[in-house]
Amino acid sequence: MFLPKYPDSPTPPPAHTHTPTEPMPVQRSLPAVSFDRDTVVALVVGGVVLTALLAAVAVTAISVAVAAVVLRSLLRERHQR
């Protein structure tokens, strides 16, 4: 039932008559990328969220640096008295 069926009279493979003088260059194509509306929206929202997180980290770092400078100057004045 699942046995392969062979042709009755085997035919020889066709003769190869063309011999290329130079190998064909490999053509690499970029994968086809199609952006639908949902993908674009997700990328934009992700970019906005990452930018907001980066801004929050920067603002926090600046405020910690300012607080450190203020505390240092207050402690220095206290030790000098």
Written account of the structure:
- The chain is an all-alpha fold and 81 residues long.
- The chain has a domain of 45 residues.
- The chain contains one helix and no strands.
- The model has no long low-confidence stretch (mean pLDDT 84).
Provide tags for this entry.
54% helix, 81 residues, mainly alpha, 1 helix, rod-shaped
Radius of gyration: 36 Å
User: What is the rounded distance between the termini?
Assistant: 104 Å
Helix content: 40-55%
- The total beta strand count reads 0
Strand content: under 5%
- Stretches where pLDDT is under 50 for at least 5 consecutive residues are none
User: In terms of quaternary structure, what is this?
Assistant: single chain
Q: SSE string, helix = H, strand = E? A: H
Main structural class? mainly alpha
Number of H/I helices: 1
Query: What sort of overall outline do the alpha carbons produce when their principal axes are compared?
Result: rod-shaped
Largest sheet: none
Q: Mean pLDDT score, rounded?
A: 84
Summed up:
By secondary structure, the chain is mostly helical.
